[in-house]
Amino acid sequence: MDGIGAGMLPVVAEVRAGGFARPVRGVKVFSRQLLGGCGPTFGGVELDFEPVPVGEVSSCTFACTALPEPDAELEEALVQGVLRELSGDDTNSPEEARRGVVGARVIVRALLWHPVDSCKRVFVRLGALAVREAVQCVAEDREPQEIITRVSLL
Fold first, then answer.
1. What is the pLDDT of residues 50-79, one digit of tens each?
2. Is the C or the N end of the chain the one with fewer CB within 10 Å?
3. Contact at 8 Å (CB) between 86 and 104?
4. 124: Cβ–Cβ under 8 A, 6 or more apart, which residues?
5. Phi/psi class of residue 88: alpha, beta or left (left: φ > 0; alpha: ψ in -120 to 50)?
6. Hey, what's the torsion of the CAs at 139, 18, 133, 88, to 10 degrees?
7. Using an 8 Å Cβ cutoff, are 93 and 111 in contact?
8. At residue 126, what are phi and psi to the nearest 5 degrees?
9. Where are any strands of DSSP class E within the chain?
């Protein structure tokens, strides 16, 4: 997913905590639309995670051109998923919530969606999965691995 564009839209939230020990760039998460599937489960994102000084707020910045074009609702859903996961507050699945708050500057490099086959719930989940992968990369001192899944809408 290449797509660094001109529009930079910062979104800041009050998530304060310790941050990433190092940058993690190129975290790619895709949700496939299955042929014959009737739910809107398609989406893809590529995110970079950068450390923020301790005590500063986490943020998401869009530094991409969304394909087919920007969609404010899907962008907002992605930010919601990222910030919810950074705060360790996964309200949809408390038993899967990551423990502890992590601060980060998140840069959205690419966002793929389809007018019929994508929905907000998919992008909330993609954001959360991207954060988990970035945290694991730092913990295991490795580069990101591409995640391909099918987000459940149930």
1. 999 877 888 999 998 678 888 999 999 999
2. C
3. yes
4. 77, 78, 80, 81, 84, 92
5. left
6. 120
7. no
8. -60, -40
9. 8-16, 18-19, 24-31, 43-50, 57-63, 102-103, 105-112, 147-149
Task: Tell me the pLDDT of the chain averaged across its residues.
Answer: 82
**How far is residue 23's CA from residue 90's CA, in Å, rounded to a whole number?**
23
Rounded to whole angstroms, the Cα distance separating 75 from 90 reads 18
CA-CA distances (angstroms) from residue 150 to 4, 63, 77, 123?
25, 25, 17, 12
36-45, 53-62, 64-73, 140-149: which is most confident = 140-149
Question: At 82, is the pLDDT very low, low, confident or very high (cuts 50, 70, 90)?
Answer: very high
| Number of helical (H) and strand (E) elements in the chain, helices listed first | 2, 8
Q: Which two tokens stand for residue 50?
A: 């950068």
